[in-house]
Amino acid sequence: MTEAPFQAGSVGAGLRTVVVIGGGQAAGWVVKTLRKEGFAGRLVMIADEIHLPYERPPLSKAVLSGEAGIETVRLVAPDAFTALGVEAWQPDYATSIDRVRRVVRTQSGREVEYDRVVIATGGAARRLPESIVGTGNLRYLRTLDDAVALGEQLRTSRRVLVVGGGWIGLEVAATARKLNVDATIVEGAPRLCARSVPPAVSDFLLELHRANGADVRLGASLAALEDHPGDPGRVRATLADGSTLDADFAVAGVGLAPHTSLAVAAGLHVDDGIVVDEYGMSDDASIFACGDVANHPNAWLKRRVRLESWANAQNQAIAVAKAVLGVRSPYEEIPWFWSDQYDVNLQILGDIPADAEIAVRGDMAARRATLYFLKGGAIHGVIAINTPRELKLARKWMSQGLTVDAAALADVGRALA
Ligand SMILES: Cc1cc2nc3c(=O)[nH]c(=O)nc-3n(C[C@H](O)[C@H](O)[C@H](O)COP(=O)(O)OP(=O)(O)OC[C@H]3O[C@@H](n4cnc5c(N)ncnc54)[C@H](O)[C@@H]3O)c2cc1C
């Protein structure tokens, strides 16, 4: 192991070893921040992927289309990572946390004593039920290796079947269409992205995909996915109504299963993710969690939530790394997520309550509009369609707790500032 080139200081005094489990975006920000804040002790990162920490958003976009290489997604350049003095146990897999002896063990038989552990294990792409899958020609998208393999297959195919009309499925379909590959999206719900956007935005997404040549089937539940009877290299999907769809291969984007088994086995409180406080601390004061695997009390939403977003993976990890060192700044960012599909950049900020008053500024049909979700004049959330500057301004108002007039917001003749 390379000794970390850092001077011991008062920050994190008394901590000899911090173990970070996971090697994704959140883990990357934890190790970076620990060093930036002056932690000079032993830092072990246990990660089952071979890659150094990287960002996943491009995996369904530029990496999938082949426009961006794998080096473009790195969170830290290899030289800079080496300079952090992190013992990266890669590829290895943390199999247990012994909270009595304060030891983490791994699949390869290694073990490390800890003072603090940060669990940043993210999640895996949820699988379709085995009972309906009778083909090996089905892919999932979570890792860089998945994206590279899926991209190669996409670029040599003529038709892909996308199971799931959520964000990942829609981005894969948009990339397929960009590559001139026919795409059929099968979604069991009556509308797209139904869990995160209101009906008007689902309709917008539907129109966007259909206008770009995607075949979108709503309320279409998948009954079977099998090898094509006449051509085993291809797949045939049978829907609940008995109709069939043929494609060269299928990709499923049906949600995320958080990697919580380690925490469950360690006896930590787990309930849709590892339950942590506003500092990312679990019910064991030596163990923290952040990113997609953590369920935290969100100050803006005023409820517990497990977020799956780039901004959360970064900013919660930063807050957690500081808390590990005893610098307690609560994580209280307004939730923010974005998606890129075709020529549309769509961003969601804050809460989108079903009973909110909606002020629409701009023209959704022209693919440029901001939807403000208001209660008593306060902005609870925003959906920005190709209007990043308006979202930025709304973020400022929301942080300041300003109240606004819905009619004035919707009037494009009035300047926002
Ligand atoms: C294809 C794709 C596109 C996305 N696009 C967007 C977007 O446009 N906008 C947006 O806001 N968000 C997007 N996201 C979400 C965002 O990328 C995630 O929220 C973020 O990557 C979560 O980071 P994480 O570090 O918490 O988890 P992960 O990135 O899942 O990293 C966890 C790592 O830990 C490893 N691990 C798990 N268990 C163990 C163990 N026991 N031992 C060792 N290692 C372990 C995992 O294999 C993984 O490598 C996208 C995600 C994907 C997959």
Structure write-up:
With 417 residues, the protein is an alpha/beta fold. It folds into 3 domains: 17-124 and 257-324, FAD/NAD(P)-binding domain, CATH 3.50.50.60; 130-254, FAD/NAD(P)-binding domain (3-Layer(bba) Sandwich); 343-410, FAD/NAD-linked reductase, C-terminal dimerisation domain (Enolase-like, domain 1, 2-Layer Sandwich), CATH 3.30.390.30. 23% of the residues lie in helices and 30% in strands. The chain is built from 10 helices and 27 strands. It has helices at residues 25-36, 62-65, 78-83, 144-155, 167-178, 199-211, 261-265, 310-324, 388-400, 406-410; strands at residues 17-21, 42-46, 87-89, 94-98, 103-106, 111-113, 116-119, 123-125, 133-134, 138-140, 159-163, 182-186, 215-217, 222-228, 231-239, 244-247, 249-252, 256-258, 274-275, 287-289, 294-298, 303-305, 336-341, 344-350, 357-363, 368-375, 378-385. The strands form 7 sheets. Strands 3-2-1-7-20 form a 5-stranded parallel sheet, with helices on one face. Strand 4 and strand 5 form a beta hairpin. The longest helix has 15 residues, at 310-324. The protein is globular, with a radius of gyration of 23 Å. It starts with 16 loop residues before the first strand and ends in a 7-residue tail after the last helix. The model is unreliable at 1-9 (pLDDT under 50). The structure holds flavin-adenine dinucleotide.
